[in-house]
UniProtKB/TrEMBL annotation:
Protein species of origin: Streptomyces qinzhouensis
Protein's UniProt name: Transcriptional regulator
Length: 264
């Protein structure tokens, strides 16, 4: 019973942090998730709560995040081989955190290690509550990290490869990749291609927030009809967009797994 409660609290904490963008609510729920998981004797759930806590903005964030990652790694180390998949997930979260801190080399090193480890996925199973963390979702994060580091061509290749691994009916996940490709083409000054990807992403509303981030990069091309059309399509979205997509942003929603109104 306590394990089920900890799983539920972890889900709610992710929703508050990365769906509703309410760090204070997320911090309270994730701390409760950690305490509940510890009481239930589940180090993997406790480590997952710590990993997400490391993404919660706060005073002294860098130091607190480092402490959370260290504590999570200790828990997973004590859990032994069964924690290998959760460790991959934790390193993906750490890569996301490093990107936010501008530590691009560290982020690329971490996500590349995760990508390599997942080649042996059968030997490194995720716990049931992490089975949404797929090769494609790791690719989405890696592509975004590469773009943040200014590696435009590499980001494009990574995202195109991720697209090739996604089922045709996994519309939510494909929309997130299209949004990433739109950002890549915008950064490369390819307004027409960027608009094309952005419009394809908007066929599934999950990616709307990510495409909003592309819009600013296309402002200088506003005279182009494709950009005007994109602006019109985005008119119903809020002026402020949430952070770009990352590995934690995708939830288990069957074939529609993508940016839920909730969770990353």
């Amino acid at each position: 019973m306590a394990v089920a409660l900890a799983e539920s609290l972890l889900l709610v904490g992710r929703v508050e942090l990365l769906g509703r963008h309410d760090p204070e609510a997320a911090r309270a729920v994730l701390r409760e998730a950690r305490t509940t998981a510890a009481g239930a004797g589940d180090p993997l759930l406790e480590a997952a709560a710590l990993g997400l806590l490391a993404l919660v903005p706060a005073d002294g964030w860098a130091e607190a995040a480092a402490e959370s990652f260290t504590a999570a790694r200790t828990l997973l180390g004590e859990a032994g081989a069964r924690a290998a998949g959760t460790l991959d997930w934790l390193e993906a979260i750490e890569a996301e955190r490093a990107t936010r801190d501008g530590e691009h080399e560290k982020a690329i090193r971490l996500i590349s290690r995760v990508e390599g480890a997942r080649v042996r996925a059968d030997d490194r199973p995720f716990p049931p509550w992490l089975d949404w963390c797929t090769t494609a979702r790791i690719g989405i994060l890696k592509g975004r990290i590469q773009l943040s580091a200014g590696l435009v061509a590499q980001s494009r290749r990574t995202l195109l490869y991720a697209m090739a691994t996604v089922r045709p009916d996994d519309h939510g996940q494909r929309s997130l990749i299209y949004a990433g490709l739109a950002a890549v083409e915008s950064a490369d000054g390819q307004a027409y291609e960027s608009c094309g990807y952005a419009c394809r992403a908007l066929e599934h509303i999950e990616a709307g927030g990510d495409v909003m981030g592309v819009r600013a990069g296309l402002a200088e091309y506003l005279h182009d009809s494709c950009v005007e059309d994109l602006y019109e399509s985005l008119a119903f979205f809020p002026a402020e967009s949430p952070p770009a997509a990352d590995i934690t942003e995708v939830t288990r929603r069957g074939t529609g797994a993508g940016r839920a109104p909730g969770i990353r």
